[in-house]
């Protein structure tokens, strides 16, 4: 029997062994995923083939990016099917075509800004676009801010600093926008998503989240959002139940309307997650989840050897909407 997650209008069937990779290929960690206008799924991963492209059935189409990226982290796709690839290993954002041609690079490869300087970039994490095509970059691990760029890569504005107050950040891990121009920032280690206007003015925050890591706007007016929450990161609460890893579906005000998994901690069983790090939807409403299970394995299972399937296909999941 297939495993079903969620409830009511938000029920999903776990599609096991969905991704069909060429023999001998490994994804290692899947940092992020994106879906284009033809429902092709782009898998930004930390294996030997950084961008793997699959169809809705999980069949392999092509790969690219070999030798281009240092460490995959964020992936966003625009209405014209351009991909914004955020590389936290070399501190850049690259805008690429669907066949891998680099159209724009923001940041200087392998030259990070000083730690917590507020200057771009120090281990940037993700991107989102305004309705006008301006580029927001969350930055990230070595900074605590958001940068706003023009469509052609000119810095317009920066906001944020380290801390826990409104407008401050503790690991700016993901970013999303809606059609009205609001900016949503996954403030991971502050256990919240902060909401800003298009110029960085703090508006509100969503609480009742546990280490929000992935963030996906489902589109339309008053959209729902899917939040990928990491499980415990400290040994003291490693085995505490009901902390994730999991997916939460919230409305445009941040009110939770469904929750998928996470009651009994991480695992390889169908219906469980390891470390949801990137989320995307296709035109049918199916959910694709990239997970950094290899990186997170020792945090979740310090005394258990990692099974080889974690790095092959288990870091990419599909949930089929019912």
From TrEMBL:
The NHL repeat ranges on this chain: 160-199
Pfam families, alphabetically? Answer: NHL
**What keywords would UniProt list here?**
Glycoprotein, Repeat, Signal
Q: Which InterPro entries match?
A: 6-blade_b-propeller_TolB-like, NHL_repeat
Record PANTHER family: BLL1368 PROTEIN (PTHR10680:SF38), PEPTIDYL-GLYCINE ALPHA-AMIDATING MONOOXYGENASE (PTHR10680)
Q: What is this protein called?
A: Peptidylamidoglycolate lyase
Q: Which organism is it from?
A: Bradyrhizobium retamae
Q: Give the organism's phylogenetic lineage.
A: Bacteria, Pseudomonadati, Pseudomonadota, Alphaproteobacteria, Hyphomicrobiales
């Amino acid at each position: 029997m297939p495993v079903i997650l969620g409830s009511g209008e938000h029920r999903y069937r776990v599609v096991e062994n969905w991704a069909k990779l060429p023999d001998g290929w490994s994804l290692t960690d899947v940092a992020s995923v994106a879906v284009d206008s033809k429902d092709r799924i782009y898998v930004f991963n930390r294996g030997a083939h950084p961008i793997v492209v699959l169809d809705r059935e999980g069949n392999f189409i092509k790969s690219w990016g070999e030798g281009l990226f240092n460490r995959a982290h964020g992936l966003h796709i625009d209405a014209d099917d351009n991909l914004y690839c955020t590389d936290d290993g070399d501190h850049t954002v690259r805008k690429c075509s669907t066949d891998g041609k680099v159209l724009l690079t923001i940041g200087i490869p392998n030259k990070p800004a000083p730690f917590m300087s507020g200057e771009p970039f120090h281990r940037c994490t993700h991107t989102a676009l305004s309705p006008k095509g301006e580029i927001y970059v969350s930055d990230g691990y070595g900074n605590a801010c958001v940068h706003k760029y023009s469509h052609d890569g000119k810095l317009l504005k920066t906001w944020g600093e380290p801390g826990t107050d409104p407008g401050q950040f503790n690991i700016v891990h993901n970013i999303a926008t809606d059609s009205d121009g609001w900016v949503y920032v996954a403030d991971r280690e502050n256990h919240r998503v902060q909401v800003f206007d298009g110029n960085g003015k703090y508006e509100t925050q969503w609480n009742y989240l546990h280490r929000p890591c992935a963030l996906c706007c489902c589109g339309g007016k008053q959209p729902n959002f899917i939040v990928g929450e990491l499980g415990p990161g400290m040994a003291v609460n490693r085995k505490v139940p009901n902390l994730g890893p999991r997916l939460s579906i919230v409305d445009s005000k941040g009110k939770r309307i469904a929750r998928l998994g996470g009651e009994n901690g991480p695992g390889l069983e169908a219906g469980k997650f390891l470390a949801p790090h990137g989320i995307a939807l296709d035109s049918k409403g199916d959910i694709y989840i990239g997970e950094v299970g290899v990186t997170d394995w020792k945090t979740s299972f310090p005394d258990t050897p990692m099974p080889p399937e974690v790095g092959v296909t288990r870091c990419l999941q599909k949930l089929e909407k019912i």
